[in-house]
Amino acid sequence: MVFSPARALASSRFGSLAQAATWFRALGDETRLPIIDRLSDGEECVRDLTDLPAMKQSLLSFHLKTLKDANIVNDRRDGRWVYYSVNPHALELQEQFARTVKARSRKPYVVRKCCD
């Protein structure tokens, strides 16, 4: 039987490849990384996040929505303000994904020759 990394990853315990792709798309924009870095220190009000470099309210809202849709950040409304924090469960799943890829990449597998 030929080992298929894609099939093995898709059926592993961390979830689906579609979820992993969503995380990578959300984290792949360098504008969002300072947001994640800032939220790693704890919950922040959206108003306080606007002081990040080159971050206007509308652009910040777009990036926070992308991170929220990817389940990377949580939000909580308190009156008229929304507070954001990093979702620790999502980080655990991302770590599990990376560990799974690392462990499986070290296992020997049969390589099929192309076009034989």
Q: Which helices and strands, and how do they pair?
A:
Layout: H1 5-10, H2 17-27, H3 33-39, E1 44-45, H4 46-49, H5 57-69, E2 73-78, E3 81-86, H6 88-105
Antiparallel strand pairs: 1-3, 2-3
Describe what this molecule looks like in 3D.
The protein is an alpha+beta fold and 116 residues long. It has a single domain (5-105), classed as Arc Repressor Mutant, subunit A (Orthogonal Bundle). It has 6 helices and 3 strands, in the order αααβααββα. It has helices spanning 5-10, 17-27, 33-39, 46-49, 57-69, 88-105, and strands spanning 44-45, 73-78, 81-86. The protein has a 3-stranded antiparallel beta sheet. The longest helix is centred in the last third of the chain and has 18 residues, at 88-105. Residues 1-6 have low confidence and may be disordered.
What are its keywords?
116 residues; alpha+beta; Arc Repressor Mutant, subunit A; three-stranded antiparallel beta sheet; 6 helices; elongated
Query: Strands across the major sheet, in which order?
Result: 1-3-2
Number of DSSP strand runs: 3
Mean pLDDT: 82
How many domains would you count in the coordinates?
Answer: 1
Nutshell version of this structure?
The protein is of the alpha+beta class. Helix content is 51%, strand content 12%.
